[in-house]
Amino acid sequence: MRHLLNPLDFSVEEISQLLDLASDIEHNLPKYAHVCDGKKLATLFYEPSTRTRLSFEAAMLNLGGSVLGFASADSSSAAKGESVADTIRIISCYADICAMRHPKEGAPLVASQFSSIPVINAGDGGHQHPTQTLTDLMTIRSLTGRLDNLTVGICGDLKFGRTVHSLIEALVRYTGIRFVLISPQELRIPSYIRTDVLDRKGIEYQEVDNLDEAMPKLDILYMTRVQKERFFNEEDYIRLKDSYILDNKKMQLAKKDMYILHPLPRVNEISVEVDKDPRAAYFRQAQYGVYVRMALIMTLLEVAKPC
Ligand code: NCD
C-alpha cells in the first residue's frame, strides 16, 4: 500500500505517468465516470480549506465514488482529545482512501503508520503540500509543454508556505531549473530547503527582495499569500502582509509568455485587474487540481485506466 506524504514519494517517472493520466482525464472525462464505483474517500480536514477539500471530493465523485469526512477539528473527536493514530484506525474501517490536512507538521505521516488505507497529505502545517505540487506541475507542463529549463520565480511567504517547499523539492529533480526566490528577509525559505535541497543539488538560485527587478527573467511567477495563521504575533503579519502586490504595471515588465501561478486563496498579493491578463493561470490551475487528484486517487487505489 502506498501513501503520498511528500512529493518525493513518487519518482520523476511516476509523476510523468500521473500527469499523463490527469491529462487523459482532462480530455476524456466521461470515460472515467465509473472507475471508482463503490469506493469511498474520507476527507479529514483539521484546518480550513476550500479548493483542496472540495477538489478531492469533486475528484472522487467524478470517478463514481463517494465521500465522507469532516471539515474542521471542532466537528471531529479531535475536540474531545482523540489522537490522529486512533482516528485513522477508525477511518480505515469506513473508507478506502483518505486525504488529511492538519496544522501539525508530520500528522499525516503519523496517520500513515497506523492506517490500513492510503493516506494523502493534503497539507501539514508549514511543511509540505504534495497534491498542490502535482497540480502546479500539471499546470506548468500544460502551459509551457515542459518541466525542465525554466526560470521559476517564487514570491511572498517562502518561510511558512508549504506549497513553496513542496514545489521546490519537486522541481529540483528536472534539468535546467533556476529559481529566483523573492521575499522579505524575514520570510525567506527555511534553511533545510536551502542546504539540503538547493545547495546539495547544486541548483542555481538567487534570494532577492525586489519583484520588479526579477520580473523580466521569469518563465513562471509563483505568487503566494503571507500565511497569517503561522505567525506568532499579529504585528509582524500586518507589517509583512502587503510586501508584494502584483498589478498590471508590474506585468508590463514580464515576458509575453510568462505565466502566473498561485495556489490560492489570494488576499492582496495579486490585484484583481491582473485576472484578465492571458498570462494569469491561477484559475486554470485550480481546475487542473481536480484532474490531478482524480489521477492520484486512481493510482493509489490501483484502479486500471479504462480503455
Ligand atoms: C494553500 C495551502 O493550504 O497551503 N492553499 C491550497 O491548498 N490551495 C496555500 C495557502 O493557503 O496560502
From TrEMBL:
Give TM regions.
none
The entry's keywords: Pyrimidine biosynthesis, Transferase
Catalysed reaction equations from the record? carbamoyl phosphate + L-aspartate = N-carbamoyl-L-aspartate + phosphate + H(+)
- Aspartate/ornithine carbamoyltransferase Asp/Orn-binding domain: residues covered: 149-299
Q: Which residues, by range, are in coiled-coil regions?
A: none
List GO BP terms, alphabetically: 'de novo' pyrimidine nucleobase biosynthetic process; 'de novo' UMP biosynthetic process; amino acid metabolic process
HAMAP family tied to this protein? Asp_carb_tr (MF_00001)
The Swiss-Prot or TrEMBL record describes its family as follows: Belongs to the aspartate/ornithine carbamoyltransferase superfamily. ATCase family.
Tell me the protein's name.
Aspartate carbamoyltransferase
* UniProt source species: Candidatus Lachnoclostridium stercoripullorum
Underlying gene: pyrB
